[in-house]
Design brief:
There is one protein chain. The strands form four sheets. A six-stranded mixed sheet has the order 10-12-11-13-14-15, with helices on both faces. About 5% of the residues have low confidence. With 655 residues, the chain is an alpha+beta fold. It folds into four domains: 86 residues, Zinc finger, CHC2-typedomain (DNA Primase, Chain A, Alpha-Beta Complex), CATH 3.90.580; 135 residues, Alpha-Beta Complex (DNA primase DNAg catalytic core, N-terminal domain); 192 residues, Dna Topoisomerase Vi A Subunit, Chain: A, domain 2 (3-Layer(aba) Sandwich); 195 residues, no CATH class. Bound molecules: zinc ion (ZN). The site of zinc ion has 8 residues, from loops. Zinc ion binds next to loops.
Length: 655
């Protein structure tokens, strides 16, 4: 390890143009340097290097980064080795701080497990597709189950041969130690393959690394477990992973909805029916960490279950946790004796998708009906049902939703609304009294796996967040406003563009929703509070890779749009894009900041109004008390007034 101070020195001293020039001939063009991209084949240069910003970006293939990233990418060095390379070049002495024994061990263990898993995955794929046994047993089985070739590829399915040491032999021949293979859960203590004669489903983490496997038995031999999963390892913790999330995450964001099914094959079947936004928990009931994972992409979950008794009971159990975490939960019951896999085989894709849409029902109402049909006229059971429902309703974080369901429950259970209402309130108060526990949950979900949704349903607001950051990074240190004292001839007050923007947003309690953007925003805020200045460089080299990536990306935008260079070019281009022509260059920054904030607030308000309308619709549909509706109506009224005044301001400018 290199100590932090030395790391910083290396980064401060390294000259990006000098370093990249050792590998790529660069030519000066305007304030930047350009050359032929070393990462993709091209005839005209689209690889840009900015000396002042310390970053590079290729507008052909999109590769971008700082000087350290360049060495990592081009020379295939690790982060630390890239720093060492620079230290040698610039003759900086490195003080190494040794990792503790434990740190080395953990790091080595994780790395060796990842490598072993990668090797195993390649081996299983090779066996499935290119050996006689793999084809006749494995592929044949998958074919019989109706799984398409492209799905087999997308999910990286493989096969482990029937010879009990086939994998072990191949791995040891490649130099893997038996101990590592055992630790990875690939072979057992006797060095026999754990996945023998099984179809192997790799399990990916969010960044696409294989961290474990789930093996499904092919034979009908009931004496062998149907599934064998990698045991818990340093890499593989079932409660932190969801099957299919890596493949589904984009579709979940796009649809703002996530289907939750039970098994691996169900996920595959859903994909095959073109319902890509589907995940499964790995044979466990849902955990808080898994919910937090989903929440990063959407708040809307649709749970698919078999409509037999066992399926329904299973559905009931996991879902309270989802509600408690503020998720909107719907349920789709499949025809009896069917799971998504088997059901999808009986109908066409179109019918399947229609079925899902048509049979989607609200979870709490569903739960009510199940309890009711169970209880029939049994008063004890009815009382039990009522307690249970009150419990579920009390978990909902939103007041209007609670009122809607109290009403619904009162109708169906034929119990006074007030009675249920009181019961719910008692439970709420009780839960508040147990605050420490709640706090604990919050800390867990916010620190390791954040709970705020990364994407809210309006795409444009995320775009606005991005735009605000871009302006902060590009023009934040420019002076926005200055007060000059004529008699003393000094500046008595000076506000930068960044301070103006941030003060305005904080005034309105506006918070970014995209977690990475939010983090960048907070770092900038801290820097301003401490130094009244945004330190671009520390952001470009931020230890959090996501932060540095976003910042580099945002900083690269200007010289893409303003090919002819110059800030004023970029600014006026920006205004042309949104249809405004400004005469004077000095007015540009003021106008840009004003526009930016107005448009951002406009979008946020639009969303808020839509949310309120949804709630009113819901309240009206179940005809709950007018007071709830009145409250929301008042809110919409207020919001509409503000939005109108903003629209007015925007119109004034857009002449
Ligand atoms: Zn390129």
């Amino acid at each position: 390890m290199i100590d932090k101070v030395t790391q910083q020195r290396i980064i401060d001293i390294a000259q990006i143009v000098e370093v990249i020039s050792e590998f790529v001939p660069l030519k000066k063009r305007g304030s930047n340097y350009v050359g032929l991209c070393p990462f993709h084949k091209e005839k005209t240069p689209s690889f840009h290097v900015s000396e002042s910003k310390g970053i590079y970006k290729c507008f052909g293939c999109g590769k971008s980064g700082n000087v350290v990233n360049f060495l990592m990418d081009y020379e295939k060095l690790s982060y630390i080795d890239a720093l060492r390379w620079l230290a040698t070049k610039y003759r900086i002495e490195i003080k190494e701080i040794p990792l503790t024994e434990e740190e080395i061990q953990r790091k080595n263990e994780r790395e060796s497990l990842l490598i072993a898993n990668k090797f195993a995955h390649d081996f299983f794929i090779q066996q499935l597709n290119h050996t006689d046994e793999g084809k006749s047993v494995g592929l044949n089985y998958l074919e019989q189950r109706g799984i398409r070739k492209d799905i087999i590829q997308t999910f990286g399915l493989g096969y482990c041969p029937s010879n009990h040491t086939a994998f072990f032999d191949a791995a040891t021949k490649k130099g893997f130690k038996a101990e590592v293979l055992q630790k990875a859960g690939l072979v057992n203590k006797g060095n026999y393959d754990n996945f023998t004669s099984r179809i192997v489903f790799p399990i990916y983490n969010l960044s696409g690394n294989v961290v474990g496997f789930s093996g499904r038995r092919i034979s009908n031999d009931e004496s062998i477990a149907k599934y064998y999963n990698t045991p818990e390892t340093e890499l593989f913790q079932k409660g932190h992973l969801l099957y299919g999330l890596f493949q589904a995450k984009r579709a979940i964001t796009e649809n703002d909805q996530c289907y939750l099914v039970e098994g691996n094959l169900d996920v595959l079947a859903m994909h095959q029916m073109n319902v890509i936004n589907t995940v499964a928990s790995l044979g466990t009931s849902l955990t808080l960490d898994q919910i937090a994972l989903i929440k990063r992409f959407t708040k809307n979950v649709v749970v698919l279950y078999d409509s037999d008794k066992a399926g329904i009971n299973a559905a009931m159990r996991g879902i309270d946790l989802l509600l408690q975490e503020g998720m909107n939960v719907k349920i789709v019951l499949l025809p009896e004796k069917h799971d998504p896999d088997s059901f999808s085989k009986t109908i066409t894709q179109q019918e399947f998708i229609q079925y899902l849409k048509k049979n989607e029902q609200d979870f709490i109402v569903f739960k009510l009906r199940v309890f009711l049909s169970d209880a029939k006229n049994d008063p004890v059971k009815r009382a039990q049902a009522y307690k249970n429902i009150a419990q579920t309703i009390s978990l909902l974080p939103d007041k209007v939703f609670r009122a809607v369901y109290v009403k619904e429950a009162s109708k169906l259970l034929n119990i006074e609304e007030q009675t249920i209402h009181d019961e719910v309130n008692t439970l709420l108060v009780k839960r508040l009294a147990q605050k420490p526990i709640q706090q604990k949950i919050e800390i867990r979900t916010t620190s390791s796996t954040p709970t705020l949704p990364a994407y809210i349903d309006d795409f444009y607001v995320e775009e606005m967040e991005k735009e605000i950051l871009r302006i902060l990074l590009s023009y934040g240190n420019n002076i926005f406003y200055q007060e000059y004292d004529e008699t003393t001839e000094t500046v008595v007050k000076s506000i930068s563009v960044a301070e103006a923007i941030i003060n305005d947003l904080l005034n309105d309690d506006l918070e970014f929703k995209n977690l990475v953007y939010k983090q960048v925003f907070q770092i900038i805020q801290q820097q301003l509070a401490e130094y009244h200045y945004i330190d671009e460089k520390s952001l470009i080299y931020h230890e959090n890779q996501q932060v540095s990536e976003i910042v580099i990306d945002l900083l690269s935008i200007p010289y893409y749009q303003g090919k002819r260079q110059g800030k004023s070019d970029e600014l006026s281009n920006y205004f042309k894009r949104i249809g405004i022509y400004v005469k004077n260059e000095n007015d540009l920054l003021h106008e840009i900041v004003r526009q930016l904030l107005l448009r951002y607030k406009h979008k946020v308000l639009e969303i808020a109004i839509r949310e309120s309308q949804k709630k009113i619709q819901m309240a009206q549909d179940s005809s709950i008390e007018d007071s709830y509706i009145d409250e929301e109506l008042k809110r919409i009224h207020d919001l509409t007034q503000i939005i109108q005044s903003i629209a007015g301001h925007l119109n004034l400018v857009v002449r």
